[in-house]
Amino acid sequence: MSSSNVKIYHQNSMPFGLSFGEWSARWWRWLLTIPKSLNPAMDLSGEKAAIGQSDSNVFFLCQTIENVEQQPTRKICIRKGTCIFLPVINWVSNFYEHGHSEKDLIETARHRMDAIGNLQILLNGKNVPGLEKYRFLSKFFSVELPKDNIFDLPAGKARLVSDGYWVFTEPIISDTTIVTFGTCSSGVTKIGVKYYIKII
């Protein structure tokens, strides 16, 4: 599928040998190990977007966290030929807050994502259709949380599971704009971001 010269991987594909669900777990490990003071999810300008990026083929982009009032407009630079993996809207469940069993955590994540609405992503101003096909549940994964983590959870190892809607672009070769928007929990939570991506 393509939108204004930006192509995205099919939902059943395995970019670089991993499923979308496996990539989502990698994404969360990246985001949750970065302290809040440096975290790209708390950044309005994009200056922190490159922190913690370790894959030469894939660049992770993020939304905001829940209850952030201002929609960020982030300006970033990436290397030509890099793919982008990002959520339109997503959720992660943990054992501290969302239940006492794996079943509890999965049900919480699914319940949150079952209530989404107004799901949208624009690539260079063109709407990407069929986003309902891009929902993925991860397997359970572990993360070593820093003291100053974005969810204010206890530091140390956490076991989590994620559900959400994700987009994985094929290699990007020219400057690109990405705009996303979505709501979950029957409209209570609104998530959105705008990225201006310069290719270097």
Order of helices and strands: EEHEEEHEEEEEEE
Determine Rg (CA atoms, Å). 16 Å
Mean pLDDT score: 91
Helices and strands: which structural class? Answer: mainly beta
Q: Can you count the beta strands? A: 12
Give the termini separation. 24 Å
Helix content: 10-25%
- What general outline do the C-alpha atoms trace? globular
Strand content: 35-45%
Biggest sheet overview: 5 strands, mixed
Low-confidence stretches: none
Tally of structural domains: 1
Oligomeric state of the chains? single chain
Produce the secondary structure layout.
Layout: E1 2-3, E2 6-7, H1 20-32, E3 58-60, E4 73-78, E5 83-94, H2 102-114, E6 117-123, E7 126-127, E8 135-137, E9 141-145, E10 156-168, E11 176-184, E12 189-199
Parallel strand pairs: 3-5, 4-12
Antiparallel strand pairs: 1-2, 5-10, 6-7, 6-11, 8-10, 9-10, 11-12
Identify the notable features of this structure and list them briefly.
single chain; 200 residues; mainly beta; five-stranded mixed sheet; 12 strands
Structure, described:
The protein has 200 residues and is mainly beta. Helices cover 13% and strands 38% of the residues. It has one domain (2-199). A hairpin with a 2-residue loop joins strand 1 (2-3) and strand 2. The longest helix has 13 residues, at 20-32.
Q: In a nutshell, what does this entry contain?
A:
The chain contains 2 helices and 12 strands, in the order ββαβββαβββββββ. With 200 residues, the protein is mainly beta. Strand 11 (176-184) and strand 12 (189-199) form a beta hairpin.
